[in-house]
Please model this.
Amino acid sequence: MNPQLCQALVEVAEAAPVGHDDWWIIGSAAIAASGIEGVKPEDVDVLGSSATLLKLLDHWQVASGASYPGGQFRSHPYVRVRLPGCLPIETMGDLHVYASGGWLPVRPATRVELKIAGHSIFLPTLREQIDILRMFGRPKDLAKARLIEAAT
Model:
């Protein structure tokens, strides 16, 4: 695994508040951490409740920022955090995606624990990662869904 990805995942695990089970790694970082080849993460997407992600940001002493600026997505806090030796980390609190004519919450129902350098991170199952990517619906997300399907 890319050392910068590994370090970012460790940073998230160390910052995650104890007793909070409402955060997940999603996107390319989750796909790579799941052992699927052919994807090169450029950042680490952390999905969770606003309250939990605000605690992550407090740990890193980073201001909470604004809502996600994109038209298809909205979340708060949305912050791109840059820590030494890591891929950038993006927080996506209470993420919603505009799909099927309305705003849909993105909240995984599954939670798979993965150990990285002795730390626990959490991902949706590969099946649910595919579902999330399809919900996002962008060409790059659909390509990643096909990549997972081909590997499983």
Summary: The longest strand covers residues 44-48.
